[in-house]
Amino acid sequence: MARTSSTPDPARRNERSRQAILTAAAELATELGYAKLTIEAIAARAGVGKQTIYRWWPSKGAVVFDAFLAANENEAGGLDLPDTGDLAADLRALLRPAAEQLADPAFERVGRAISAEIQLDPTLLREYRARLLGPLLEVTRDRLRSAQRAGQLAEDLDLDLAVDLVYGPLHYRWLLGTGPIDQAYADAMVEALLRALRP
Amino acid sequence: MARTSSTPDPARRNERSRQAILTAAAELATELGYAKLTIEAIAARAGVGKQTIYRWWPSKGAVVFDAFLAANENEAGGLDLPDTGDLAADLRALLRPAAEQLADPAFERVGRAISAEIQLDPTLLREYRARLLGPLLEVTRDRLRSAQRAGQLAEDLDLDLAVDLVYGPLHYRWLLGTGPIDQAYADAMVEALLRALRP
Amino acid sequence: MARTSSTPDPARRNERSRQAILTAAAELATELGYAKLTIEAIAARAGVGKQTIYRWWPSKGAVVFDAFLAANENEAGGLDLPDTGDLAADLRALLRPAAEQLADPAFERVGRAISAEIQLDPTLLREYRARLLGPLLEVTRDRLRSAQRAGQLAEDLDLDLAVDLVYGPLHYRWLLGTGPIDQAYADAMVEALLRALRP
Amino acid sequence: MARTSSTPDPARRNERSRQAILTAAAELATELGYAKLTIEAIAARAGVGKQTIYRWWPSKGAVVFDAFLAANENEAGGLDLPDTGDLAADLRALLRPAAEQLADPAFERVGRAISAEIQLDPTLLREYRARLLGPLLEVTRDRLRSAQRAGQLAEDLDLDLAVDLVYGPLHYRWLLGTGPIDQAYADAMVEALLRALRP
DNA sequence: TATTAATCGAGACGGTACGTCCGGTCTTAAA
DNA sequence: TTTAAGACCGGACGTACCGTCTCGATTAATA
């Protein structure tokens, strides 16, 4: 007797369809926004049966998120913070581009959609932490640890708290719109951070 | 001459229905969670026609959000930070309860839902800032300004940035789950903040 | 204690509104067809509150029907069949215009709508018989009775059955579209009728 | 290439659902009457999604009408008028049961509803003529033609007009209630018909 | 190389909720 | 008191998608 409705065999998966689905999802997400996006539309755009989507992804969020990851993982994969020895400069080199991206209106929609999705679905949050956020925080902690060893930071500094301090305020301002986000803000933030973290 | 299909007259609004809708929305939001909540269910629970909801609110998000505001505004209205002169103690008195609320699993579901709703709908964000966030930031800035005048903080401190520093890291950790949220974290954060903000 | 929701006092009725309602109903019936007609639309067009319609008419059908009657009663009131002594000629003078009206596409829509309404609502049927159909059948029977007295028709002829024979076939052909309706048909029908009714 | 939002494929139609819908429609039509019948109720009773009804029928009228046709087509399929050579007897055998059915209160409600629906919707009228009325008129004409050949009817008789004479008066009396419908009426009508149609 | 089993595109299906429309009732202010 | 205006509860409308379920028709691994 054949197994019914079991997990499918990844070996037989149609790579062509997988790509078409991710592409369609990405396109539609930017065109319509996440909320107005539907599985049916993705299937239609990708020229794919709905079942092919449901076979490989558990939810709309998972598809879109996968598309987002596929687009960002490459770039994120190669992320490495500079370590010039000048902590202030290095932090500026980190926060300035971050501020720039957050201030970009094109990033606005998809960024907020993904962010909302992540904070509502624990599964997606876990995956986001594993594949994107985690590595970023890792290298950030590494850089701070390096500064710590160099005596630029307090010896007993809690690096997890430090990382929250680095990214939290910027993230807060972006999500809640408490003020403008620009280079000056990034620079001022770096100064405040250094005061907070120094020995 | 009669206007056709125009905005309704608030003077003729049925207060009884308005209350019933907000109450039903609040109840259902906690029972089912925001995502599973439907306008139809709210209308049924409130003993109200669907049209009466659509007449006064543009979306499900707006209703739930209004219910949330109605529930929190009172308490928020009376918010005043202590000003004992001891800034460290006052900040702890601010951040400890905040951490406690964020760590409360009961707050988790509705909090994240509202947060996601806010960051996706600019209208709701604006209203949130006007009615809840704004006043909170205001009193926070006031307290910091008071400390500034007392010479406890840098004279040239940017209070908006300072506020981001106060609330941002905690918010970040809560949304992205980068670490545990407890009293120790709140206290450590206060110490770091004082270092960052001191003259 | 005042009587609540009792029958209204016709003496205080606003004639201006009554006219406006009937006119609006007639206009909208021809513009939209009976099925798409709504009480709300009539009230809006007439510049009248919905309640004013519900106060004086029990249903949409009643309003439209009343409008139809108001428009046709005058003309129907003055109906009198010719009695030239030549029964064949007089029947032709009766059926030819009838055929012409039924064949008129402009009459098609409203005619069928009224007809359908009548056959579905016993109340309307009763009123239709009382105010329009009754008088018509009456004068028809009168003319046949006159011919009967003149020896042109069978003495024992059942006049009610005779009237069915006069109007029934034409009506049948019109409603079910079993064939073309024109002057030739009317004339042929008259010939057949005479054979059927003669002594 | 896929056609978008086009007509569905009848080959994939679920016969089980089709039957359930027609049955539910027939039941509800007799229970509630046509006017109080809703698509939602049909779908619920049939255990079917609303969309499945809308996919295959354009309107409530079409469904009910289809149910009516499905119920009556069998019986109508086997209809054959007797041809005993005695035209009077054969016509009585035709009109007496017809009168009986029309006089049956149980037939009243659904009969009038279908009749009204037919006369308002040209599409339904066409289908009614094709599937029920047409065959009936056909066999009627055949019987009359047979009598014509036997010299019992006028040679130049217009059979279409003759058929209107046979069915029209009865139909007229039924729809407009111009008099009682019973066996005596049917018999008297047959006598009048024979006079009208004889050579 | 033929067989066989899974995936695929397609789309009908039972459902749920949507947002709109309108029925019929009730309330209010003006006439 | 009636009226115009229109908010109200209720409920059906017709639509959009959901996630499941057949259907052949590929298509890729096995025999």
TrEMBL record, chains A, B, C, D:
It comes from Kitasatospora cystarginea. SUPFAM superfamilies: Homeodomain-like, Tetracyclin repressor-like, C-terminal domain. Residues 15-75 form the HTH tetR-type domain. PANTHER family: HTH-TYPE TRANSCRIPTIONAL REGULATOR RUTR, TETR-FAMILY TRANSCRIPTIONAL REGULATOR. This is TetR/AcrR family transcriptional regulator. The keyword DNA-binding applies. InterPro entries: Homeodomain-like_sf, HTH-type_TetR-like_transc_reg, HTH_TetR, Tet_transcr_reg_TetR-rel_C_sf, TetR_C. Residues 38-57 bind DNA. The keyword DNA-binding applies. Pfam families: TetR_C_11, TetR_N. Transmembrane segments: none annotated. Keywords: DNA-binding, Transcription, Transcription regulation.
